[in-house]
């Protein structure tokens, strides 16, 4: 940092971002679409360089003893890079929200009052090991005319540097301020805290990662934040459930990619079907990957690979092949239990009872509530947003997967012809 303090370092990035943010709203929708598609093509063309950087990060992760499940979050391959590019193209083709008129009317004084969508300004993100966040965040920010400052985790530093450099190259060639995207290349905690406290430079901060990161940002931030992503995700298997369907869904939600926030962490089972369902589930799940069940007293003897659950297990985001199990006597008990332990991310019920399904969706307090489907679908790409900047678990203007509209504010445009208020 050339002897700069953390505050000076972040201030320099913030000032560059604010300067870039002034010019971005002047770009037309067609120009933004073209730039994003060009960046997507360039990312694919830079696959070898990006993968070389990623291999350095993976080697460092192995040396630091990072688990295989968490390494999966970090790892890129050609398919994942193509998917990142595809997500950017999908964002490019979405309708541009900037300038969208939300409301408009002429009041009794003859004033024309129009409310339009406008950019937030400067968005900052603090996130952990998943390098695809860099490209997703840039595409959404750029499409909405925002400058973005990215602070990824140490584990993915080389990969993020390669990705951001590729983006900045395209911006520079297009004569667009390349500081529309900047990477905090110092991953020290003091730098992160300076970013959290950069009032006047950062318009909104989005933390994306584990519970510890989210809590730290909530405690220390002096800028507005949007809370995202801790996923203590439940699946409730009702007494009327199709058990074969339930097995497929739970196996998918737990094992398809356990290191992500929409993976199932907690299983709630109606006691009437527990003795049939749990052995079925364990047998099926073992064919994919062994899972450690942390079970209550009623579920424990029904499972071979189970240990007694501790109270904290029922609120944990394991991000591993671990699943807590709770038995209940009815749907209302399941709903109350989930609401007591939810992280407000994604919850699901497997049932053939329409009234149970309706009650579950209405009463469970989460951003996304499923009936008879895997929680793994909670994703901006799947929901048609092109990409996501995070999954909001709070109840502000954005909740659930956050796409373009979540990165906008509004402004009132008022026009008159000499009116004064009497």
TrEMBL record:
UniProt catalytic activity: L-glutamate 5-semialdehyde + phosphate + NADP(+) = L-glutamyl 5-phosphate + NADPH + H(+)
Enzyme class: oxidoreductase
GO MF assignments: glutamate-5-semialdehyde dehydrogenase activity; NADP binding
Compartments where located: Cytoplasm
UniProt domain Aldehyde dehydrogenase: residue ranges: 11-289, 321-384
Entry's transmembrane regions: none
Family of this protein: Belongs to the gamma-glutamyl phosphate reductase family.
PANTHER family, A to Z: DELTA-1-PYRROLINE-5-CARBOXYLATE SYNTHASE, GLUTAMATE SEMIALDEHYDE DEHYDROGENASE
NCBIfam families in the cross-refs: PRK00197.1 (NF001221), proA (TIGR00407)
UniProt protein name: Gamma-glutamyl phosphate reductase
Name of the coding gene: proA
